[in-house]
Structures are given as C-alpha cells and as structure tokens.
UniProtKB/TrEMBL annotation:
PROSITE patterns: GLYCOSYL_HYDROL_F6_2, PROKAR_LIPOPROTEIN. It comes from Actinomycetospora chlora. This is Glucanase. Coiled coil: none annotated. It is an enzyme of class 3 (hydrolase). The keyword Oxidoreductase does not apply. InterPro entries: Beta_cellobiohydrolase (IPR016288), Beta_cellobiohydrolase_sf (IPR036434), Glyco_hydro_6_CS (IPR001524). GO terms for molecular function: hydrolase activity.
Length: 346
C-alpha cells in the first residue's frame, strides 16, 4: 500500500462545524411553540421533513434539510424528495472547537433531543494538532486548552445520555506517527482523560479507531485503545467519514474486539452503500463518484458486538476541494443528491 493510498483510507475531512447553531435552536424553539414539535421535524422556515423512526435525534435544521426546503421553493420537487433520504436521518453533530461556545451548543442539542425523546449523537473533535495539521487542521492550542474545552463540552451534556464519537483519527494517527511525518506524544493519556470526562457527564463514548486500511496491525491498535481508556468507554468507532463496506469493517472490528475482551464498536455507514471507490481517478478518498448512502442509523445491527450503525459524517459534506467540490466540510448539494439517487428505496 502506498503512502497516498494509506492517506486515502485514513483521511478524515474537515469537521462539520455547526455555524448556525443558535439560529437552529431558535427555529426549533419556535417549532415547539407552534405545536409541530421536534419529533415532527417542523421548523419555522417551511414544511417538515419527517424524521425517520429511530432512537437517535434528527436535526430538522441540518444542511440537507435546509437544502430540501430551498429546492422545494425553487420547484425542484424530485430533487427535494430524493434528498429527504438524508434529511430525515439522524446525523452526528460536530460541536465547535471554541471554548466559549461549545457548552451552549452541546446544551442546545441535548435539550432538543430530550424534548423529542431521542438520543443525540455528538462528535468530539478538537484534540491538539488535529489531523496532524493537514486537511482538517486545527484543534485546541494545547493540552490544557483541550481539557478546558472538554469540561465545557461535558457541562453542556449536563448528565443527559448522549452517544459521543471521540476524536476521529487521533489514535490511528498517533500509532502511525502521522503517517511517518511527525510524532504525536501523549495522545493516549489525553484520550483516556476525555473518556473519563465525557463518560462522567452521561456520554456513551466510543474512541475512534480508524478503519481496516489505516492501522493494519490489530494488536497494535488494541494496545493503543487500552492505553486510551477503552475499558472505561462504551467501546470504539470505525469507518468515520470513510466508504468501506460494512462487512469488511465489521470483520476488522471483531478482530480488534477479540483482543479487548469483546469490546463493542460502532460503524459509520453514512456513505458506504457502494463500498470504497477503486476507479482510476485520484484521490480515491476525496468525494469519489458512484457512492451511495449506507444502512440508516440503528441499534439493530444483527451483531452483539456492533453497538450501532451511525451516520457520523453528514452525507453531502465535502471531503475537500477536488472534483469541483467546495472546501472540506462545506455542504455540497450536488454530491448529496448523487448519494441519494444512488441509494434505492425511500
């Protein structure tokens, strides 16, 4: 496997920052007052996108939901209907990395989920030197700033139950020394602290462990997870923002789990309906053509070790400025529509 291919299998895109969080919360509040309620998905801006039946909370103000409303208003009824395949599903919220804003943002999500009788899914993504300073660069300035951010994140949760996917790519990049480009010291202890902080606040915490093409030494990955506090967590997470086939990811996860006394894991199925892209166009990881939505979020996985299938990455968020796409993390309606149109069923 070449280094470029390795990056393709392991690369996480820029975080989905909820820039309009306060506006979304306000819209949801108006919805509740009007009698529509969060459960119906009604927003103050137009007709509802009915949420799928699920334990997990569906954000009625997601990028996909807003795009549905825009296309309806423009008369693009067929495209809007197709995009509802995304808008009606629960997708993880990636809260801001700003210390002063994360508590309120998390509290708003948790409050709306509680009102709807559902469980929110959150992604904690702010570790120092995030993504080795590359495509999704950023993160807290230092470890103390990260601890402060985690504390505010935890206060926002307020003891309410929430699924938390912890630091996508952080451990795999540590174990591979940022793919040989730099070293990441002390990451395991910092992740272990995060597990304790977020679990104590009500979090069902899953430590991200990459995917089958990232850390191929299963024993090395299991040891890293131990050092990162997996015994105190709910388990580990796989395939975040990636396209790998669920069966391959599950087989890999079972190998890791077997070295961790049967630890459970979650799989990101948001865009893996057609598996990974193996065509000639490069890079293979960046907005690859011909992909489809995967299994909708559910606890009914058919496996005692797979705790849930989740949509951690919002389908339609760009992987980067390739193939005519906008910057990483920006919603790209045309790609979202392609994913939806390539997915059979409602």
């Amino acid at each position: 496997m070449t280094q470029d291919t390795h990056r393709g299998t392991g690369r996480l895109t820029r975080t989905r920052l909820v820039a309009g969080a306060l506006a979304a919360i306000a819209a949801l509040g108006l919805s509740a007052c009007s009698g529509g309620g969060s459960e119906g998905g009604q927003t103050g801006g137009g007709p509802a996108v009915a949420p799928a039946a699920s334990e997990f909370w569906v954000d009625p103000s997601s990028s996909a939901a807003r795009q549905v409303e825009q296309w309806r208003s423009e008369g693009r009824a067929d495209d809007a209907s197709a995009l509802e395949k995304i808008a009606r599903q629960p997708v993880a919220i990636w809260p801001t990395g700003e210390v002063g804003g994360v508590e309120g943002e998390v509290a708003g999500v948790v409050s709306q989920a509680r009102a709807a009788g559902r469980t929110p899914v959150l992604t904690a993504y702010n570790i120092p030197n995030r993504d080795c300073g590359q495509y999704s660069s950023g993160g807290a300035e230092n470890e103390d700033a990260y601890r402060e951010w985690l504390g505010n994140f935890a206060r926002g949760m307020g003891g309410a139950r929430a699924v938390v996917v912890l630091e996508p790519d952080a451990l795999p990049q540590t174990l591979t020394n940022c793919e040989g480009e730099s070293r990441q010291e002390g990451r395991e202890e910092l992740l272990s602290e995060a597990v304790r902080t977020l679990s104590g606040a009500g979090g069902e915490v899953y430590i991200d462990a990459g995917n089958p093409g990232f850390v191929t030494n299963v024993g090395q990955l299991a040891d890293g997870l131990r050092k990162s506090g997996v015994a105190q967590a709910a388990g580990f997470a796989l395939n975040v923002s990636n396209f790998m086939d669920t069966r391959a990811v599950e087989a890999y996860g079972n190998q890791v789990s077997s070295q961790l006394n049967g630890a459970r894991f979650v799989i990101d199925t948001s865009r893996n309906g057609n598996g990974s892209y193996d065509g000639p166009d490069q890079p293979t990881w960046c907005n690859p053509p011909g992909r489809a939505l995967g299994t909708p979020p559910t606890r009914d996985t058919g496996s005692p070790r797979v705790a849930a299938f989740l949509w951690v990455k919002e389908p339609g968020d760009s992987d980067g400025d390739c193939r005519g796409a906008p910057a990483a993390g920006d919603f790209w309606p045309q790609y979202a529509l392609e994913l939806a149109n390539n997915t059979p069923g409602a």
